[in-house]
Amino acid sequence: MPETKPEVSPSVKQDSQLSRIAFKAPVFWENDPELCFFQVESQFVIASISNDYTKFHAVDAGLNSNVLSCVRDILKNPPLENAYIALKNRVLNSSHTLNSIERFLDSKRERM
């Protein structure tokens, strides 16, 4: 006797399809990455995204080339656990470092 699959109601199919497309990573804000992560994490809640792997790749999709170059090693070889947190921490730390360097260089330029 052939195995039959339980029928899924159209509303359940629609909901699962919507959850797959409900999240689109915002453009990354280099000038305020911490605020950007607040927005991203709010969107994760709204879209019911709790999977670490999904969060990791959603953030990756929204990063620009400047930031991607700072996190290349994590993207190429993500940690097996807490990959999203590792990526977020690196982005925030890299951003603070880059901003500090820019402020330092600006102060040197002003003195010249």
* Number of helical stretches of at least 4 residues: 6
Rg over CA atoms: 20 Å
Order of helices and strands: HHHHHH
- Helical content band: 55-70%
The quaternary organization reads as single chain
Question: What is the averaged pLDDT score?
Answer: 77
Please provide the count of β strands.
0
Please state the structural category: mainly alpha
Domain DUF7041: 26-95
Protein name: DUF7041 domain-containing protein
Pfam families: DUF7041
Organism: Araneus ventricosus
The gist of it:
By secondary structure, the protein is an all-alpha fold. 69% of the residues lie in helices and 0% in strands. It is globular.
Write a concise keyword list for the protein shown above:
112 residues; mainly alpha; single chain; 69% helix; 6 helices; 0% strand
Q: Your description of this structure?
A:
The N and C termini lie far apart (86 Å). With 112 residues, the protein is mainly α. It is 69% helix and 0% strand. The protein has a domain at 33-110.
What's the helix and strand layout?
Elements: H1 10-21, H2 33-46, H3 52-62, H4 65-70, H5 72-76, H6 83-111
